[in-house]
Amino acid sequence: MCVQSDRQEEIPIKKYRSEWKYCEEEAQLLSLKERLTAVLNYDSYAGENGKYEIHSLYFDDYKDTCARVNVAGEGKRFKYRIRYYGNDAEQLWLEKKEKYNSYCHKRKCALTTEEYELIMIGRAMDVFWNTDEQLLKEFCVDIVTKRFLPRLIINYEREAFVETITNIRITMDYNISASDEIERFLTGDYMKIPVLEKKKHVLEVKFDDVLPSYIKAVLQASILGQRSFSKYYLGRMAVQEKKKYNKIM
Fold first, then answer.
1. CA 31, CA 130: separation in Å to the nearest integer?
2. How many degrees, rounded to 5, is the angle at CA 218 between CA 216 and CA 224?
3. Which residues contact 120 (CB under 8 A, 6 or more apart)?
4. CATH no. of 16-248
5. DSSP secondary-structure letter at 14?
6. What is the pLDDT of residue 146?
7. What is the mean predicted confidence (pLDDT) over 51-69?
8. Angle at 116 between CA 111 and CA 122, to 5 degrees
9. Residue 73: what pLDDT?
10. Neighbour tally for 167: CB within 10 Å
């Protein structure tokens, strides 16, 4: 859907999806999974065990604005991250996730290894002048003008269920960990610091307009209260606490 400006240019309207988050005990998620498998299909990305690994490198500006707005509870915010799945670090994705309260809008584009390497050594404008991807151009400009830098790696295993007709996606993210060993992002051999208590994991429910009653019933039978949750922010806190502990020791 588009609107027309005075110059008759087409301007796309952002479509925000609802995003509900929960932090649950492992036993509750296992119970929920049994119910979900009866009504939804596994994500096509899933491996033989139904899960796949996600590696994300988050960026923040020199004021740590993306981290601070989570503490302040500001309704409108965004994050940049570079992501790859499993061990395939050759296929990178740049994502910009915008949030407005419990609604989200995500844009993504492919990123080459060469573009990634240039960004990491401070040559973002070389990438800017040699790409046609609008999102990548915006990212490069923010790196230069707002001094965005790589701050944190977040890693976890994901199990996902989908309903393709109505575009519903329910994900369970297990064993969430954080690392500030940025230089090891593509190799995957970085130190992983747990973000949550043992056997606690994250459930996310994403949908466009209305969540069908039969899925609501499945969720309500297995889970507790909805809550705000930022993997990036909690990861920053976990790494900070680990550094404090190491200094004491």
1. 49
2. 80
3. 150
4. 3.20.100.30
5. P
6. 96
7. 94
8. 140
9. 58
10. 12
